[in-house]
């Protein structure tokens, strides 16, 4: 099965590239924390959707997809960010982000429910739990214990759990479309981003105050859109279509680790024992998850 093995390797490399882009999201978000979240999401997704243009040779008609497929895409991109930013506004950010990072665990554990012919082994469960423990240590270690939760925290945690469910199920549903012959071109991610971005801007117009963006803001939003809110989605879609969703789900545990390390570097904070322990757990989970069937 050399061809299958090659596809798996390619998929894992694409997933790692996606993870590297997503790991920059926290640092970019911190630099743009003064921009209202729906405005930031909308502009970022619209910028990211432009990546699809060269893929379809600037023929917008080739971005058309069936309505059910478009609904899945908007469900993933808009639904995930809507609930995540709502959660971060109502619950302590570190704890809400920790609940959000249940989505890699969801991919691993929900794969047998949504993908035909996929079974879950005890090793996958162990790898998923070890990766989740490492993600928790990495995130909580960065917070130094976290702050007291406000009264609306429970609603925020529910939104964060909903965001985790949406992203894991969206990832598996796109894989299911590919396996059942209803595949869509990766360029269609541009349609998902375009519609999701417009919805986010509508939410901004209805729910958020008007702000003036500086040239620095515009440049950073462009980087955000072309990277973690744009290019990452195209890479993620291709990885899921080529590879094993369980392996990719476990590899995605590297995201909170790398995000934490980038924040430590950008803020000049020293590497703590929490992050070192998280490194061992997450890397161990990734190795175990990619070597089991």
Biggest sheet: strands, sense, closure? none
* Total separate domains: 1
**Spatial extent as radius of gyration:** 18 Å
Poorly predicted ranges: 143-150
Question: What is the H/E string?
Answer: HHHHHHHHHHHHHH
The helix-and-strand class reads mainly alpha
Query: How much is the average pLDDT?
Result: 80
Task: Provide a quick synopsis of the model.
The protein is an all-alpha fold and 293 residues long. The chain has helices spanning 2-23, 25-31, 37-49, 52-55, 67-90, 93-100, 103-114, 122-143, 153-179, 189-207, 215-242, 245-251, 254-267, 273-290.
Name a few traits of the molecule.
293 residues, mainly alpha
What would your notes on this structure say?
It is a single chain. With 293 residues, the chain is mainly α. It has one domain. Helices cover 77% and strands 0% of the residues. Helix 2 runs antiparallel to helix 11 (215-242), helix 5 (67-90) crosses helix 10 (189-207) and helix 13 (254-267) packs antiparallel against helix 14. The longest helix has 28 residues, at 215-242. It is globular and about 50 Å long.
How are the secondary structure elements laid out?
Blueprint: H1 2-23, H2 25-31, H3 37-49, H4 52-55, H5 67-90, H6 93-100, H7 103-114, H8 122-143, H9 153-179, H10 189-207, H11 215-242, H12 245-251, H13 254-267, H14 273-290
Helix pairs in contact: 1-11, 1-13, 2-11, 3-10, 3-11, 5-6, 5-9, 5-10, 6-8, 6-9, 7-8, 7-9, 7-12, 8-13, 8-14, 9-11, 12-14, 13-14
């Amino acid at each position: 099965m050399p061809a299958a093995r090659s596809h798996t390797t390619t998929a894992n490399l694409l997933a790692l590239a996606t993870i590297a882009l997503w790991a920059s999201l926290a640092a970019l978000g911190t630099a743009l924390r003064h921009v209202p979240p729906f405005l930031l999401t909308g502009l970022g997704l619209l910028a990211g959707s432009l990546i699809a243009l060269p893929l379809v040779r600037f023929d917008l008609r080739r971005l058309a997809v069936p309505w059910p497929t478009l609904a899945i895409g908007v469900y993933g991109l808009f639904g995930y960010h809507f609930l995540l930013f709502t959660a971060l506004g109502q619950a302590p950010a570190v704890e809400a982000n920790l609940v959000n990072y249940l989505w890699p665990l969801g991919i691993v554990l929900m794969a047998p429910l949504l993908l035909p012919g996929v079974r879950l082994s005890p090793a996958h469960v162990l790898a998923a739990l070890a990766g989740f423990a490492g993600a928790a240590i990495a995130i909580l270690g960065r917070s130094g214990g976290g702050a007291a939760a406000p009264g609306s925290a429970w609603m925020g945690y529910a939104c964060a759990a909903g965001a985790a469910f949406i992203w894991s199920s969206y990832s598996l549903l796109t894989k299911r479309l590919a396996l059942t012959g209803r595949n869509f071109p990766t360029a269609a991610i541009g349609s998902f981003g375009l519609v999701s971005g417009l919805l986010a801007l509508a939410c901004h117009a209805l729910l958020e105050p008007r702000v003036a963006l500086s040239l620095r803001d515009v440049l950073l939003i462009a980087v955000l859109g072309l990277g973690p809110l744009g290019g990452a989605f195209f890479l993620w879609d291709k990885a899921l279509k080529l590879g094993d969703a369980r392996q990719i789900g476990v590899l995605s545990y590297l995201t909170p680790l790398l995000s934490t390390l980038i924040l430590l570097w950008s803020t000049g904070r020293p590497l703590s024992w929490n992050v070192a322990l998280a490194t061992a757990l997450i890397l161990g989970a990734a190795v175990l998850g990619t070597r089991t069937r």
